[in-house]
From TrEMBL:
Pathway: Carbohydrate degradation; pentose phosphate pathway; D-ribulose 5-phosphate from D-glucose 6-phosphate (oxidative stage): step 1/3. This is Glucose-6-phosphate 1-dehydrogenase. One of its GO terms (molecular function) is NADP binding. NCBIfam families: zwf. GO terms for cellular component: chloroplast stroma. PANTHER family: GLUCOSE-6-PHOSPHATE 1-DEHYDROGENASE (PTHR23429:SF14), GLUCOSE-6-PHOSPHATE 1-DEHYDROGENASE G6PD (PTHR23429). The keyword Oxidoreductase applies. It comes from Brassica napus. Its EC number is 1.1.1.49.
Length: 585
C-alpha cells in the first residue's frame, strides 16, 4: 500500500473517518437555514438544485465555512436541528475565500473516449455551473502535445448538447483556459511526479482533491494507478480514480485487477464506471418503482410474465475490432450494462438511497441468479451485405479481426432469479451490433387478465396476447409508455391496444444530460451509488464466467446475420421456448 494513499478516504459511507473534519460536527438552526437561502445563488448550488433534485447534496455551515455535502438536510432537519457528521467536502467556501480545489486528470487524453465523452462532459458540467469554483483539468498521455494543442483538440470535440447554447463559445474559452496537458508514460513515476508538481502549482496551496480518469486500455490500468497513487495523489484532500471497463475478462482476471488496484487504492477510492447507470432513464428506474404506488405492487412473478433488456446498435465494431474481438458482445454489453439494469430493476427496496444500501440490494439479486445454461443462449455474428447499392462489411472483414473469429457480435439469453419475488420469471437479454436500429430499452410484459370478460366479444382482439406492457426506452427518444387495452370510440365494442405515453422530449423542455456528465459529477461529489462495488463485479462475473468458458471451449459457432437485420432467428426460438415474444418486433 502506498503511504500517500493510506489516509482514510472520505466517502459517504465513511464520513466519520475524516481526520480533517472529525471535530467539525455542527448544529444547523434557523439562522443557518437563512444563510442557506442567501447562498442559493452560488453556481455549484444552482447546478445541484436544478439537476440533482434527489436530495443528495446540501449546504451546511461548518465552523464558519460553508460546505457542500452529500447528505440530505431535509431528512435530518426533523426537529429543526441538524447534527452534521464530519463530511466529505465537495467545495468549501468560507468568508469569501475559496479554499479547496479539484484537479481532474484524464489519463489517456489523446484517446477516443476522452475526446468523444470525457472532455465534452466536463465542459457541459462547467457550462452548467456544476464544477467547483477552483478546478483544473489535465490531459495526460504519451502523445506529445502542448496545452494549446490539447485545447484545440478539446474545442473540436464539442459535438454534444451544449454547443448550440447561449454563450457557448465564451464559456468554452473560459473552460479551455482551465485545461492543460502533460506528456508522460503511464508507468513512469518520474512523469507523474512532474504532473504532481504542475498540479500543486495550480492548486496554489488550497486543500487539494484529485480525480484521475483512466481512459486507457486495461492492460495499463495498474501501472497508471501505481504511479498516480504514489507520485501524484493528494496529500490534503481526497484522491479518487475512475476506472473504465473492461474490468477483466472473467472472474479470475477481474479479481486479479481488483487485487492489484487495491494494492494502491482503498475500495472507496475506486469508481468503476458503467455509463449505462448514468443514463437518465436508468437513473429513473428506481424512482418509477419506489415512488409510485401503482408499480411496486405489480413488480413480481405474480403479475409480470417476463422482462426484456434489449440493446441494439445499427453500426458494427468499426474501428474497435481489435478490442472487441478479445471481449465479444456478452462481455461488452450483457455482463455489465444489461446486468446492471437488471439488478436495479429486480432488487428489493433498499433501506435508503445511500450508495451502500442500494448496492447491497443489487448484490443480493445478482447472487440469487441461476447459472446461465448454454441452451438458454443464442449467439450471432454479422456478415457483410449489400443494400440499396451500399455494401456493409461483415465483422470478419475488419482488418483487426481474425478471419476465422467466432466472437459473437450478437447474443440473446434467458436468465432467472431464484428468489421468492421472481421465481420462474424469464429475464431475457438481447444485445447486438450492426442491427437494423439503435436503441436500448426495458420491456415488462404483464400476465394476461384472468377470466377476461372482453375476450368473449372483443371484436377479434385476443387479450391473452395483447397483455399490458410497460416500456422504458433508455435511448433514443427517451420515454416511458404503458400499453393498455382500450375501447375504440364508437357505438360498438371493439378494443385495441393504445399507449399511455410519457415522451421526455414533449414533457420536459430540459435537455437530457449525457451519462458521463452525471457520473463525473458524482465522482467529484463522492457519490458512489452509480458506480460498481467490487462484490457486485464479482457476482456479475460469477454469473457469466462459466457460460463464457463453455461458449469458448466448445467453440460455439455464431449464427450469421446480415448487417442491418434484426439479428439471428435463433433469438426468436429462445424466446418462444420460454413462452415469450420479443416486444421490439
Ligand atoms: N471508446 C469508447 O467508446 C469506449 C471506451 N471504453 C474504455 O475506455 C478506455 C479508453 O478507451 P479509448 O479511448 O477508446 O482507448 P484508446 O485505444 O483510444 O486509448 C486511449 C489512449 O491510451 C493510449 N494507448 C493506447 N494503446 C496503448 C497501449 N497499448 N499502451 C499504452 N498506451 C496506449 C493512447 O494514448 P498515447 O499513445 O497518447 O499515450 C490512446 O490515445 C478503454 O479501457 C476502453 O475499453 C469504454 C466504453 C466505451
Ligand atoms: O460500453 C459500450 O457502450 C457503447 C454503447 O454506449 P451508448 O451510450 O452509445 O449506447 C458500445 O458501443 C460499446 O461497444 C461498449 O463498449
Amino acid at each position: 500500500m502506498s503511504s500517500s494513499l493510506s489516509r482514510p478516504s472520505y466517502s459517504s459511507s465513511s464520513r466519520t473517518s475524516s481526520p480533517f473534519f472529525s471535530n467539525h460536527s455542527s448544529l444547523i438552526n434557523g439562522d443557518t437555514r437563512r444563510s442557506l437561502s442567501l447562498l442559493s445563488a452560488s453556481p455549484q448550488e444552482l447546478c445541484l438544485r436544478s439537476q440533482r433534485k434527489s436530495v443528495q447534496s446540501s449546504v451546511v455551515l461548518q465552523d464558519g465555512a460553508v460546505v457542500v455535502t452529500n447528505s440530505s438536510p431535509i431528512e435530518k432537519l426533523k426537529d429543526g436541528l441538524l447534527s452534521i457528521p464530519s463530511q466529505e467536502v465537495v467545495a468549501e467556501l468560507g468568508g469569501g475565500e475559496h479554499e479547496s480545489t479539484v484537479s481532474i486528470t484524464v489519463v489517456g487524453a489523446s484517446g477516443d473516449l476522452a475526446k468523444k465523452k470525457i472532455f465534452p462532459a466536463l465542459f457541459a458540467l462547467y457550462y452548467e455551473g456544476c464544477l467547483p469554483q477552483h478546478f483544473t483539468i489535465y490531459g495526460y498521455a504519451r502523445s506529445k502535445m502542448t496545452d494549446g494543442e490539447l485545447r484545440h483538440m478539446v474545442s473540436k470535440t464539442l459535438t454534444c448538447r451544449i454547443d448550440k447554447r447561449a454563450n457557448c463559445s465564451e464559456k468554452m474559452e473560459e473552460f479551455l483556459k482551465r485545461c492543460f496537458y502533460h506528456t508522460g508514460q503511464y508507468d513512469s513515476q518520474e512523469h507523474f511526479v512532474a504532473l504532481d508538481k504542475k498540479l500543486k502549482e495550480h492548486e496554489g496551496g488550497r486543500l487539494s482533491n484529485r480525480l484521475f480518469y483512466l481512459s486507457i486500455p486495461p492492460n495499463i490500468f495498474v501501472d497508471a494507478v501505481k504511479c498516480a497513487s504514489s507520485s501524484a495523489s493528494s496529500l490534503s484532500g481526497w484522491t479518487r480514480v475512475i476506472v473504465e471497463k473492461p474490468f477483466g475478462r472473467d472472474s479470475k482476471t477481474s479479481a486479479a485487477l481488483t487485487n492489484s488496484l487495491k494494492h494502491y487504492l482503498e475500495e472507496d477510492q475506486i469508481f468503476r464506471i458503467d455509463h449505462y447507470l448514468g443514463k437518465e432513464l436508468v437513473e429513473n428506474l428506481s424512482v418509477l418503482r419506489f415512488s409510485n404506488l401503482i408499480f411496486e405492487p405489480l413488480w413480481s412473478r405474480q403479475y409480470i410474465q417476463n422482462v426484456q433488456f434489449i440493446f441494439s446498435e445499427d453500426f458494427g465494431t468499426e474501428g474497435r475490432g481489435g478490442y472487441f474481438d478479445h471481449y465479444g458482445i456478452i462481455r461488452d454489453i450483457m455482463q455489465n450494462h444489461l446486468l446492471q439494469i437488471l439488478a436495479l430493476f429486480a432488487m428489493e427496496t433498499p433501506v435508503s438511497l445511500d450508495a451502500e444500501d442500494i448496492r447491497n440490494e443489487k448484490v443480493k439479486v445478482l447472487r440469487s441468479m441461476r447459472p446461465i445454461q448454454l441452451e438458454d443462449v443464442v449467439i450471432g455474428q454479422y456478415k457483410g451485405t449489400a443494400k440499396g447499392g451500399v455494401t456493409y462489411p461483415g465483422y470478419t472483414d475488419d482488418t483487426t479481426v481474425p478471419k476465422d473469429s467466432l466472437t459473437p457480435t450478437f447474443a440473446a439469453a434467458a436468465l432467472f432469479i431464484d428468489n421468492s419475488r421472481w421465481d420462474g420469471v424469464p429475464f431475457l437479454m438481447k444485445a447486438g451490433k450492426a442491427l437494423h436500429t439503435r436503441s436500448a430499452e426495458i420491456r415488462v410484459q404483464f400476465r394476461h387478465v384472468p377470466g377476461n370478460l372482453y375476450n368473449r366479444n372483443s371484436g377479434g382482439t385476443n387479450l391473452d396476447q395483447t397483455t399490458n406492457e410497460l416500456v422504458i426506452r433508455v435511448q433514443p427518444d427517451e420515454g416511458i409508455y404503458l400499453k393498455i387495452n382500450n375501447k375504440v370510440p364508437g357505438l360498438g365494442m371493439r378494443l385495441d391496444q393504445s399507449h399511455l405515453n410519457l415522451l421526455y422530449s414533449t414533457r420536459y423542455s430540459k435537455e437530457i444530460p449525457d451519462a458521463y456528465e452525471r457520473l463525473l459529477l458524482d465522482a467529484i461529489e463522492g457519490e458512489r451509488r452509480l458506480f460498481i462495488r467490487s462484490d457486485e463485479l464479482d457476482a456479475a462475473w460469477a454469473l457469466f464466467t462459466p457460460l463464457l468458458k463453455e461458449v469458448e471451449e466448445k467453440k460455439m459457432i455464431p449464427e450469421l446475420y446480415p448487417y442491418g437485420s434484426r439479428g439471428p432467428v435463433g433469438a426468436h426460438y429462445l424466446a418462444a421456448k420460454h413462452n415469450v415474444q420479443w416486444g421490439d418486433l
